[in-house]
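Let's sit down with a protein and look at its sequence and fold side by side. Go ahead whenever you are ready, and we will take it from there.
>
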Amino acid sequence: MEGTLVIDKHAGMSSHDVVARVRKIIATRRVGHTGTLDPFATGVLVVMIGKATRLMQFLSGAEKEYEAVIRLGYATDTGDLTGERLSENDFHAKTQSIRKEEIENAIQSLRGEMDQTPPMYSAKKVKGQKLYELARRGEEIERAPVRIMISAFETIERNGRLLKDNENGTRDLAVRVVCSAGTYVRTLAEDFGKQLGLGAHLAELRRTRAGAFKIEDANTLEQLGELAESGLLEKLLISPDATLAHLPALDLSGDDVRRVTSGLNLQVEQTAWANGQPVRLRGSSGNLMAVGIYDEPQKLVHPQVVLGIEETSERISRGV
């Protein structure tokens, strides 16, 4: 089996847990994921199987979309509901008297391109060590800020209300966020609270899209298991070519297929591609044979990842 599955991850599972379950369900060791989701988060986790795992590098920069709940009232040491409360003095009149105009102004200030410092409680590695491992030992180190893009940051009204009041005095704000890869939504929640002058943390997070893969295309691990038992799992499998549908494609002749699968450069006619553009290289039946990188000065494509899928093999070409 080779291709991509879109999983709707449950809360309480790490992304690694999901990969382990998929390996067991489909009896295949070669499984990986693109874009880690924290254990408390739910939603879209893109899982790749077999030789398709070699294509993960072409999905790593995909835009993400989330629905989240920001809890106003106090901050935590992790920036989310799993952490310890940082202050006992964050509940004050400001939390209860916050106005819609203040919320809109704070959100507006956090849209667009900006620098964001990765939180200590994150899987990001610095000098070979994961930050959360250092944080659990009580260590904090300097982290270089990362340039991110918040394309959309907007409120969601629920039951006709902007804010939900909780019994403990906190208030919840539901939001929708569209952002570049590498953005930490819990850091965004903390920054939002700072703009309002009060403590805040992320209470809920659900990824609704990763690149072209939407929550509507996702299946739970339970559904995956049921389909595997029924022998229908391949109906969910997205082909390698459809997985990279966001990339331009070049259909090859028989001679070109032999060159590409041998790792040889392919001369191409004039195109509008930018230098360094990844390109799908497909056989006559539409199978993805390789992914090449376009060399604009020399007008050629260099095969970077060769899958070596035979033209006669049956592939599922369902789009997403």
Q: What stands out?
A: Confidence is low (pLDDT under 50) at residues 310-320.
